[in-house]
């Protein structure tokens, strides 16, 4: 239909040539990259700084055994008492002062060790120090009760469970994380898209009403065409924006890294993630890649397309109907509210219930309800969902979508010519009969 | 004369009020048809039905003897009362867009627009955004967009609102021009003086019902009261007044005189003619003013709405 094409073209061009839209398109990635760069930079500054810690070890147990690491250096000033040590530590502007008093009982020592610092110390540093001291004291305790330390160390056993699915595929801990993250990204993407561009559609309908062009328009085209043109044109503009964002973010990240040699926080967090495990970095990275490949990728891709289109259009038609029913943004709030609640609920179920039990009752029910299924199902699919469940859910989604478009078109048709009053839900139902 | 548009017993009910009750009107080709009625009478609903914006509950509308269908959209040009343009779009682009939606080819639309923009002397607005235009300026653009695709049927709802007298005249002349070139015009307004000037036919709708329709001068004849305005110059004022009152039915004068000192409205009985009145008056005094009272569209409007 030529008219629909024209409307889509106008809506699209109108959006993408809008100054604030262009600004948002180019500034957002800059801001994102800039911020992650800043965070990355600050983290690295934080990590790189060597932390000097003065230690008063009255027990003498630690003086030679508390070992320095790259960023943690212990200076022993055992001859001073607490007050003097505090003064010294302060004038040297140390990271902090570790005070270990002497008692006969090891447990009493453990209870009375102090860490004194100017500012609140970082949790990770404290726990590292605690770990070191704990190990040393424990060993001393072993010796005290007459256990052979060598034998103990030798008799320790490390466990790393080999995981396999019933189909015989190897699974790892990484699988779970990847599934969770991947599902979450897909669900979030849909959620953001619905809100950002759904409300854009609503605003554009309201604008058409307030500028009173709508009657001129619908004397030339069917309200349904106008509505669909608006939805599709805005969505295309949205996709364009998303595409530009992706390209720019990737480009900026590499550019920034190349110029400043600083890793942005995203790259940093990957490193942190991989270095925190027990395994060496290489196997970890390999695991990640293989976990990714092990995902039901074709299924995810196809489902993503179907759910994204269905879910987005379902909500977009609702937003268009709301825009048609009201005169201004303030009035729109009472109708946007239920949509927000449902979407947040979907996200909540997706983030908290799905990782816990991807095939539990709650997750399954919410992946059938059409208003939550796009988000919840997208988060479930990386964990593997039977195809028949997906098909039933998709059928329900698209049936509801058809119904919703029909209802929205009815409301749109009547609403765009109504001015001056905020309709109630009761009136909206009446409009369906016009 | 052949009819371009026939509305046949159209009714429309909204949730709890009847907007149109069994309305039938016929609009002859190449005429200007005044669709009149008080606020809320149902005019806009009827116009929207003709534009296929709303569907009637019952009844039919025929354009050129064909039942109304989506294809007819390009044959109709509609200037609604509630009209506007996209504020952030450029005037030229917008006019092109609206013309294309009416089925014009882009190149044709461009050519036609150039012609109209020059005619209305607004060529320099092409690249301006609508927000930069005044209300009257935007109205001009809307008028052009309405008539650009040379539709058979033009529907104007209060076309003169927002125009100064000079531009209103410009638009009025264009409407007459378009009629002369073969278009049929439906004209909805509350301004009775423009009805008087423009309309060949009228229909009056009140409270969802049609209460009057037909050729404007025939309707006027129906509402003729055989009343004459008479202004005389005489120095025997009271004497002559008495004589007239003995022979004719008189009422208070409804006109302002100029130099006459006896002013009366005289109502003729069916047996009396204007010639008789004149020859009677000639003998009595100098006649300064003699004019039949023709009911104005305004009088007819008010009278028939009140009677209804």
TrEMBL record, chain B:
The keyword Transcription regulation is annotated on this UniProt entry: no
For molecular function, the Gene Ontology terms on record are: ATP binding; ATP hydrolysis activity
What Pfam families does this protein map onto? ABC_tran, DrrA1-3_C
Q: Does the keyword Nucleus apply?
A: no
* InterPro entries found in the cross-reference section: AAA+_ATPase (IPR003593), ABC_transporter-like_ATP-bd (IPR003439), ABC_transporter-like_CS (IPR017871), ABC_transporter_ATP-binding (IPR050763), DrrA1/2-like_C (IPR025302), P-loop_NTPase (IPR027417)
- Domain (ABC transporter) spans 5-232
Q: What PROSITE patterns would the database entry show?
A: ABC_TRANSPORTER_1 (PS00211), ABC_TRANSPORTER_2 (PS50893)
- Keyword set for this entry? ATP-binding, Nucleotide-binding, Transport
| PANTHER family, sorted | ABC TRANSPORTER ATP-BINDING PROTEIN (PTHR42711), ABC TRANSPORTER ATP-BINDING PROTEIN NATA (PTHR42711:SF5)
Which family, according to the similarity comment?
Belongs to the ABC transporter superfamily.
For this entry, the protein name equals ABC transporter domain-containing protein
Please tell me the species this chain comes from: marine metagenome
């Amino acid at each position: 239909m030529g008219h629909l094409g024209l409307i889509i073209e106008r809506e699209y061009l109108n959006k993408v040539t809008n100054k604030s839209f262009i600004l948002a398109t180019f500034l957002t990635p800059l801001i994102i990259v800039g911020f992650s760069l800043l965070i990355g930079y600050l983290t690295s500054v934080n990590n790189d700084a060597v932390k000097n810690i003065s230690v008063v070890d009255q027990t003498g147990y630690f003086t030679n055994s508390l070992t320095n690491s790259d960023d943690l250096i212990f200076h022993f000033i055992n001859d001073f008492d607490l007050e003097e040590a505090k003064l010294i530590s302060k004038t040297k502007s140390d990271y902090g002062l570790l005070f270990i008093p002497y008692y006969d009982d090891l447990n009493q020592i453990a209870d009375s060790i102090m860490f004194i610092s100017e500012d609140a110390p970082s949790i990770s540093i404290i726990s590292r120090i605690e770990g070191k001291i704990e190990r040393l004291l424990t060993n001393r305790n072993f010796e005290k009760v007459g256990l052979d330390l060598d034998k103990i160390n030798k008799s320790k056993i490390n466990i790393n469970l080999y995981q396999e699915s019933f189909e015989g595929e190897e699974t790892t801990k990484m699988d779970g994380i990847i599934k969770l993250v991947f599902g979450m990204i897909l669900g979030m993407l849909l959620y953001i898209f619905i809100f950002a561009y759904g409300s854009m559609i609503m605003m554009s309908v309201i604008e058409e009403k307030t500028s009173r062009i709508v009657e001129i328009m619908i004397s030339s085209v069917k309200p349904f065409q106008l509505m669909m043109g608006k939805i599709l044109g805005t969505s295309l503009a949205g996709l364009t924006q998303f595409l530009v964002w992706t390209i720019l973010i990737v480009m900026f990240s590499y550019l920034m890294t190349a110029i400043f040699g600083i890793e942005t926080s995203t790259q940093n967090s990957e490193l942190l993630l991989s270095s925190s495990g027990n395994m060496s970095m290489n196997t970890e990275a390999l695991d990640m890649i293989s976990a990714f490949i092990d995902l039901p990728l074709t299924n995810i891709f196809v489902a993503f397309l179907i759910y994204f289109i269905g879910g987005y259009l379902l909500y977009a038609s609702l937003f268009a109907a709301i825009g048609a029913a009201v005169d201004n943004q303030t009035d729109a709030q009472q109708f946007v509210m239920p949509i927000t609640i449902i979407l947040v609920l979907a996200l909540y179920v997706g983030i908290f219930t799905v990782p816990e039990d991807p095939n539990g009752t709650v997750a399954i029910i919410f992946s059938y309800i059409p208003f939550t299924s796009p988000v919840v199902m997208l988060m479930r699919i990386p964990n593997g969902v039977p195809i028949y469940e997906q098909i039933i859910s998709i059928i329900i989604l698209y049936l509801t979508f058809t119904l919703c478009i029909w209802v929205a078109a009815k409301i749109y048709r009547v609403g765009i010519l109504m001015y001056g009053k905020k309709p109630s839900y009761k009136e909206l139902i009446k409009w369906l009969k016009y | 004369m052949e009819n371009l548009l026939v509305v046949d017993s159209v009714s429309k009910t909204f949730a709890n009020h009847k907007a149109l009750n069994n309305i039938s009107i016929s609009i002859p080709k190449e005429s200007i048809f005044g669709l009149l009625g008080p606020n809320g009478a149902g005019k806009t609903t009827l116009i929207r039905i003709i534009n296929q914006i709303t569907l009637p509950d019952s009844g039919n509308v025929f354009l050129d003897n064909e039942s109304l269908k989506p294809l007819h959209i390009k044959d109709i040009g509609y200037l609604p009362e509630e009209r506007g343009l996209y504020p952030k779009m450029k005037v030229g682009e917008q006019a092109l867009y609206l013309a294309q939606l009416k089925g014009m080819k882009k190149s044709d639309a461009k050519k036609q627009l150039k012609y109209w923009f020059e005619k209305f002397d607004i060529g320099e607005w092409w690249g301006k955004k609508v927000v930069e235009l005044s209300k009257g300026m935007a109205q001009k653009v809307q008028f052009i967009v309405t008539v650009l695709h040379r539709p058979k049927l033009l529907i104007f709802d209060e076309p003169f609102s927002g125009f100064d007298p000079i531009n209103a005249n410009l638009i009025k002349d264009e409407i007459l021009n378009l009629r002369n070139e073969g278009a049929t015009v439906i004209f909805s307004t509350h301004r009775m003086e423009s009805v008087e000037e423009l309309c060949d036919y009228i229909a009056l709708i009140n409270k969802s019902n049609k209460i009057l329709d037909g050729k404007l001068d025939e309707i006027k004849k129906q509402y003729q009261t055989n009343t004459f305005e008479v202004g005389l110059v005489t120095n025997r004022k009271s004497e002559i007044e008495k004589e007239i009152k003995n022979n004719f039915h008189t009422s208070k004068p409804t006109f302002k005189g100029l130099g006459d000192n006896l002013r009366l409205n005289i109502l003729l009985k069916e047996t009396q003619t204007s010639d008789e009145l004149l020859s009677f008056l000639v003998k009595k005094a100098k006649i300064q003013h003699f004019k039949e009272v023709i009911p104005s569209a305004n009088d007819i409007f008010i009278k028939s709405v009140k009677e209804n």
